[in-house]
């Protein structure tokens, strides 16, 4: 039974090595996958970056020639939509650069780290294998020793037992002799008596010899048994120590630095991704700021400044007197003038009222249009909801821009309002001064 | 001079229409560029998304077969590095989905908006053109009227002047006649006297006629001048109103809704980008969390549980007694045992001390190694610094992973420490129980 346990243990030790080897192989494989993965992703990022760069270049080149851009070079003062457009192109460039950087970090940093971790794991495994070999050697030594001392004990014990039985036998014979010598003396012959005495002596001697042999063997067996007991304890202690401490140490040897290095490699990846994100975010904030500054008033101002010849008001018309005739109302027509003046006064009053009406309607309609064109329908966050099974994402996308019919309806509605606005609106506002002549 | 001003104004009105037309053309062009830009970017995003999907699929398929994955399916309990690896693949998938969504939003939402804004701008320009036409018509009417009334005034004034001079001449003749009739009467013939009287009467009549003509013309000219002055004021008012208000209204008509709609279109783009970013960030946080949980202890536990047969400790070795021999120390060897016991005691003491020494050294060395493998060298933020001229970015990248020599040095250093660790470390710790037998 003991020897069976030996074999079991020996088998286990071999098995343990196998497991550690397998673990290392799995790690090396994982690290290989990680390298391949990041190599491929680096390619993808590079291609993405190139495409973005091309895109930006294409439109940059297109705009560089334009009048606006010359303006842009002179003073940074651009029409607000054009400004947004330039920042949009800048953002694409920025993204292009960042993804190139990402790819670069994958190749020159992350992948290198995984390579080194792979080397380290293999080296660590070798080390631990050496140590394991030593440990197993020594453990086997202990086990063999246990086996030997046990056998020795059993042997000596057997010997002492057989010696004991021989001794017992001798004692029996002796008793027999003593029993015979108890017969009545008168009817025994003289020479017969002499014979018996010598045989008793012989038995005495044999018994002593066996007694000595027995005690010697007995002592040997006791010592062997004590040695066995001691070795037993020692062995159990060693086996316990190996399984509870050394084995764990062995695994630690294989692990030495593995998790920490992996951690750093992955953190490098994370650092790169987070920084790409931050940079991207900064860029978007710049655009958002420009979008906040989309402003019709200032653009109108710029537009009119761009063409001063077209928009500066002409001089006032002056009175062209005819050969030294100077202005001064004259008696004969004063009454008539007064009448005319009153007519104009009343006409003016009604026009003022009419204009007020028009103004009100116009402003109301304009407000309606303003509300229509400033409706906040641009939040698309629901398209980026990731349920655990991200399958559900695609579906929502089609609905991101309000369903086609509803747009059509909204646009029709808007244009209708426009129509009305133009009917009541600006066409009326200027009628004022002309009506002076309708009288 | 006045008529010159007419021509100037008429030219300006034409120029103004040209400017507005040009502005609209520039807007339509810009909106076309924006559409092309987003169409191309959508393509790029789609391609990027496809590549990422392929990448994830490739490695997912590879891992799906593995033992780990079966484990993963059963209980989510994975070795921490494998868990990181799976989350890395999930992240790529997530990015793939998000960029597909982005592309979708560009095509089905953003571009559509730009198309509509372009339509609107053109429509608005047409409207404002109609209005402008009306405005110009009326303005011209006013100007022509001014021109006419001025001419009328000049004509009537001229007539009244000539009438006045004729009147003056008549008066002179009359005075001449009165002067002649003052001569001494006695030496004039009778019939001569009669002749003079009739010519005086004739002059009287003519003077009256001219007097009437003159007052009539004078009145006409005064009325004409008043009309002229009034029209002058009205015209200046109209011109002023057109240049200060109507012109601005015309531009507003062209702008109606332009900035607001552009704002919404660009905000849709921003919303998509920001949401992509958020989703990406969530994914990275999940990975970071898994990286925080890279843990040797629990992995060791899992590893040993995976192979119970190899790692469970064997049974204790029991005392194998020999045919009914029971354990009990016997007199004859007691003294000897005592001696042996004392020897072991002292040996044990020294071993304990030795082990303490080894432990100290080992732990110190291990700590050194730990410090080496946990050095925080993974921050790559400086690679993503964008100076205004983002040209400086690329350069830093090469230095992201500490320069090659310094790595080599660090790694050599680390392996040296390892060597030492393995020399003093685990190989010694187990010597304890074996030395029992060296006595």
TrEMBL record, chains A, B:
It comes from the Eukaryota. Signal peptide: none annotated. Keywords: Coiled coil. It holds the Pfam family FCH. Residues 334-361 form a coiled coil. Residues 1-299 form the F-BAR domain. PROSITE patterns: F_BAR. The keyword Chaperone does not apply. This is SLIT-ROBO Rho GTPase activating protein 1. It comes from Prolemur simus (Greater bamboo lemur).
């Amino acid at each position: 039974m003991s020897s069976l346990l030996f074999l079991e243990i020996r088998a286990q030790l071999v098995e343990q090595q196998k497991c550690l080897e397998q673990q290392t192989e799995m790690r090396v494989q994982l690290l290989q996958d990680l390298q391949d993965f990041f190599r491929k992703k680096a390619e993808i990022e590079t291609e993405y970056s190139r495409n973005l760069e091309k895109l930006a270049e294409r439109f940059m080149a297109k705009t560089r020639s334009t009048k606006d851009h010359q303006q842009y070079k002179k003073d940074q003062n651009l029409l607000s939509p054009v400004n947004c457009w330039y920042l949009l192109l800048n953002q694409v460039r920025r993204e292009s650069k960042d993804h190139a950087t990402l790819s670069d970090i994958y190749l020159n940093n992350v992948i290198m780290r995984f390579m080194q971790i792979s080397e380290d794991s293999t080296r660590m495994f070798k080390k631990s294998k050496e140590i394991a070999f030593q440990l197993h050697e020594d453990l086997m030594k202990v086990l063999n020793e246990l086996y030997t001392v046990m056998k020795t004990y059993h042997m000596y014990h057997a010997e002492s037992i057989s010696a004991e039985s021989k001794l017992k036998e001798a004692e029996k014979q002796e008793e027999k002799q003593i029993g015979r010598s108890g017969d009545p003396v008168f009817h025994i012959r003289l020479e017969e008596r002499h014979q018996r005495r010598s045989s008793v002596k012989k038995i005495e001697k044999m018994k002593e010899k066996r007694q000595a042999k027995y005690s010697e063997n007995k002592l040997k067996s006791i010592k062997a048994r004590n040695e066995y007991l001691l070795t037993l304890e020692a062995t159990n202690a060693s086996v316990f120590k190996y399984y509870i401490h050394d084995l764990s140490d062995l695994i630690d040897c294989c692990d030495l630095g593995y998790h920490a290095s992996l951690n750093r490699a992955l953190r490098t990846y994370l650092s790169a991704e987070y920084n790409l994100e931050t940079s991207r975010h900064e860029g978007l904030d710049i655009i958002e700021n420009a979008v906040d500054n989309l402003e019709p008033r200032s653009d109108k101002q710029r537009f009119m400044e761009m063409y001063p010849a077209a928009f500066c008001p002409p001089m006032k018309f002056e009175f062209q007197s005819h050969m030294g005739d100077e202005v001064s109302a004259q008696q004969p027509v004063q009454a008539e003038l007064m009448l005319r003046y009153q007519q104009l006064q009343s006409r003016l009053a009604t026009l003022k009222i009419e204009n007020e009406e028009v103004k009100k309607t116009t402003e109301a309609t304009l407000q309606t249009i303003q509300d229509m064109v400033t409706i906040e329908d641009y939040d698309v966050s629901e398209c980026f909801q990731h349920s655990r099974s991200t399958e559900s994402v695609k579906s929502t996308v089609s609905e991101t821009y309000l369903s086609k019919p509803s747009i059509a309806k909204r646009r029709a509605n808007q244009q209708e309002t426009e129509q009305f606005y133009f009917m009541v609106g600006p066409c009326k506002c200027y009628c004022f001064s002309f009506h002076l002549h309708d009288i």
